[in-house]
Amino acid sequence: MENPFEEQPHRIQRPTFLSVLCILTFIGSGWGVLSNLFSLFTADLLNSTVQMEQYSSMMDGMNAGESLSNYLSSAMTTLQETFVHAREIHVMSLVLSIVSLLGAILMFRLRKFGFYLYTTAQILMLFVVPYFVGFNFYVLSTLFASGIFSLFFIILYAVNLKHMQY
Predict the structure, then answer these.
(1) pLDDT tens digits, residue range 90-121?
(2) Of 31, 70, 106, 165, which has the most beta carbons under 10 Å away?
């Protein structure tokens, strides 16, 4: 039987906010791992030429203004290049999703090193598609949107760094 007056070793308590962030990252990075694994195994099954013809005919049928037409044209170019480099993109995204998940697990265990792993993976993940596809208006707009979301999570994790140890 334990003595309630005996001094207990001080255990560091994980803040609820950090737990919620980690759980959200488990979900997001876990989904990234699963979807990239699935895409990696099914990339060869997709007939990209048929899909590109469907996208092209869909774009031809649209009556779009000049700016929307330019945006759709850059999206089409990006899509074509993505099909060409699908395997490489999915392998790199899979590895970075695993690193991000590992970082979240370490942060859940209150290890600062997890923050650095997570941050590195998130930043590198932003540049996977542009590395293979190049930069155009479509890529830059998705890079910007994804970058804001990643930056938001990195900042939220950075606020909780004081609760983590090496």
Answers:
(1) 999 999 999 999 999 999 999 999 999 999 99
(2) 106
Sequence-ordered alpha helix ranges (H) in the chain: 16-42, 48-61, 66-84, 86-108, 112-126, 128-133, 137-159
Helix (H, G, I), strand (E, B) or coil at 39: helix
Judge whether 100 and 122 are in contact, CB under 8 Å.
yes
C-alpha distances in Å from residue 9, one per residue of 6, 12, 41, 106: 10, 10, 49, 22
Count the Cβ atoms, other than its own, within 10 Å of residue 117.
Answer: 20
pTM: 0.77
At residue 111, φ and ψ (nearest 5 deg) are: -110, 125
Contact 85, 132 (CB under 8 A): yes
Q: Where are the domains of the chain?
A: 16-163
User: Which residues are CB-contacts of 25 (< 8 A; sequence separation ≥ 6)?
Assistant: 100, 101, 103, 104, 107, 118, 153
Contact 150, 97 (CB under 8 A): no
User: CB–CB of 136/77 below 8 Å?
Assistant: yes
28-62 tens-digit pLDDT: 999 999 999 998 888 766 655 555 555 556 555 55
Tokens of 133: 């596809």
